Amino acid sequence: MVSASLQPRSTPHSPPRGPLSDVSILLVDDDELVRSSVARLLQRRGAQVRSFTEAEGVLAAAIESPPNLLVMDLELGGMTGFELAEAMTGDRRTAHVPILAFSGHDDQRTRAAALAAGATAFLAKPCWVGELEAAVARLARHPWPTGGDGSASGRF
Questions:
Q1: Which of 44, 90, 127, 135 could be a cystine partner for 152, CB 3.0 to 4.6 Å?
Q2: 146: exposed, middle or buried (C-beta count within 10 Å: 0-12, 13-18, 19+)?
Q3: What pLDDT, on the 0 to 100 scale, is given for residue 16?
Q4: Could you give the CA distance from residue 37 to residue 129 in angstroms, rounded to a whole number?
Q5: What is the pLDDT of residues 77-99, one digit of tens each?
Q6: Among 83, 122, 102, CA closest to 37
């Protein structure tokens, strides 16, 4: 006689296991569609995501519970992503958190300004899902840019 275990394989509250399991991410983007799509994608890959519509409050959240990564848009209402990067890198409690600047403005000036403000890497919107997932995984686990220009994709 074969007995079957009656234990569930996972509970309804168990986070999904995936390539981003055990990764905590703060996500800030004022575009609801982008924010919810990116959050859903990262959560499906196993990440714990806390989303924000504005930069205000992100620094306090990072101090209270430091994430593995901050993914942020650069143009936000109120405090900009540039200002948030400066605040994060300027505070000893959050200076270690890598920052992925995620912007629709893909020009050398914007990239340079984001990196100068404290972003660890830059990824242009729109991008392929795999590009975003790879950049997030790389930065959350090894927070150093791989590209000569600071790009998360490793392109020069």
A1: 135
A2: middle
A3: 59
A4: 10
A5: 889 999 999 999 999 999 999 99
A6: 102
